[in-house]
Structure formats: C-alpha cells, structure tokens
Amino acid sequence: MRLFDLSGKVALVTGGNGGIGLGMAKGLREAGAEVMLSGRDRNKGEAAAKSIGAAFHPADVTSEADCAALIAAAVARFGRLDILVNNAGMAARKPPEALSAEEWHKVMDTNLTSAFLLCKAAYPHMVKAGGGKVINIGSVASWLAAPHMAAYAASKGGILQYTKVLATAWAKDNIQANCILPGWIDTDLTRAARAQVAGLNEAVLARTPAARWGEPRDLAGIAVFLASAASDFVTGAGIPVDGGYLARA
Ligand code: NDP
Predict the structure, then answer these.
(1) Sign (positive/negative) of CA torsion 145, 107, 200, 238?
(2) Cα(2) to centroid(ligand 1), Å
(3) Which of 1, 96, 165, 172 would bridge with 150, disulfide CB 3.0–4.6 Å?
C-alpha cells in the first residue's frame, strides 16, 4: 500500500540487533526502507543485519562521539537519513534508596540522553532530506511507576516529554516525532526482569487484557506507520502498544 511505502527512505534503529529494535527494523525493511542497525555487540549486530538485509554499525549510545559517528555512518552508507528510531535501552531494577548515582546516570545516558544526542546529529540530514521521522521508544513506564523503576521510569517519562518538545520545535522542518509506549514484550530485557522480580510473569498476564506477553513483531506495524507518510499529521504523540495494559484500572 503506497501510504505506508518506505522505498527510497533510510532508517537508523539503535538497539536494533535484537528484541524490539529488530522487530521494528524487520517491519521497516518489509515496507521498503534501507535500514542501519546499531548496538554494542558486533557479532549479534552483524547476524541480525544479515537476517533482514540491513547494514550494521557498532556504537555505544552513551558516548557522544559514537552517536555522531553513527549518524555519519548511516549517511555515508546510504546517502541520506529520513527515520531515526531511538530504541536502545536498559533498566536498573532497584528502589530509589538503593540506586547509586552511577546506576542512575547509566540508565539516563542510555535511555534518554542518547536520544537527545542522536536527534541533534540527525537533524541537519533530515532538514536536507526535506523532512523526517523521529520514533522514540518510551514504555508504559512513561506513565506508570513501580518501586524498582526509579531511573527507568524517570528516563521513560523524560523521553515522552522530549518527544513533545521535538514535535513542537521541528514541525517547521516537516519532521514528525512520536513516542511508542510498549507494554510487556518478551525480550532479553524482560526475561531478566522475570528472573529478578518474583510474580512478574503472573502480574503481567493478569493485568494485560490481551492476556499474553507481546512479541517484538507486535511493534513492526506502529514503526512502519510512524515512519511513513501515513502519519504525516501525527506528531508529539505517545502511543501505547501494550495489549491494553494502560487501559486497565
Ligand atoms: P533488549 O535488551 O533485547 O535490547 C536492548 C537493546 O539496546 C540491545 O540491542 C542493546 O544492544 C541496546 N543497547 C543497550 N545499551 C546500549 C548502549 N549503551 N549503546 C548502544 N546500544 C545499547 O531489550 P528490548 O528489546 O526489550 O528493549 C528495547 C527498548 O524497548 C528499550 O528502550 C526498552 O526500555 C524498551 N521497552 C521494552 C519493553 C519490554 O517489555 N521489552 C517495554 C517497554 C519499553 P547491545 O547490548 O549490543 O549494545
């Protein structure tokens, strides 16, 4: 369908070497975009890229130099940049009183500051291309909280607000910015959470109206929508993809 066609567009997906990032990247490739994946793990990244016909460039998104080099690598490889998916993320599962400043900064740098740095570096290329799409990955924790989410929920609330700022600042450049709020998706991140937090699996299934964990593939459709012309009048939104989790009181 032409409304969702991404032929001729170039997308960069951070944390694209697995989990939700790879699920979204597959969707973008299927819609016709050229895709560059990124992550720190080169072996995992190259295998993931090969599996979907994408390129891979290693980067640690907590490094400002790596962020600048990553944007430059995408433009050098494909000649332009239209779609930036800020997906790289991590969690530190501790209550506020137990979290160290170092742990706080690591989560903030990975989940929030990276989006700021990558957006800044991508901006001139999107302007040059005549517009662009920023897709930030928030969480149901952009809205909700739990005792062990001190830094994580703060970073995910922050990225939703940052997305709204981008939407207001860059509308003049035909750049739309939106934030996806995934519910509980079965990935390495949440497998670790299930191992650490007693009763999490049962609690997620009980609260999610769809009564299942999401799969990375469940994020492909929203990524294509937000990357395509179909969403040209959608900006500054936080869109849950959560099987109804946020809707339940
Ligand atoms: P994964 O742990 O499977 O993936 C995380 C990705 O981020 C990996 O590709 C990892 O690659 C990358 N990454 C982590 N730290 C860095 C870093 N410093 N520099 C570069 N890349 C980094 O988790 P998910 O797929 O579950 O998570 C993806 C996003 O979705 C995150 O932002 C997460 O907060 C969010 N999310 C996930 C939910 C879920 O239920 N799974 C729910 C709501 C939001 P590498 O290790 O190679 O660097």
Answers:
(1) positive
(2) 31
(3) 96
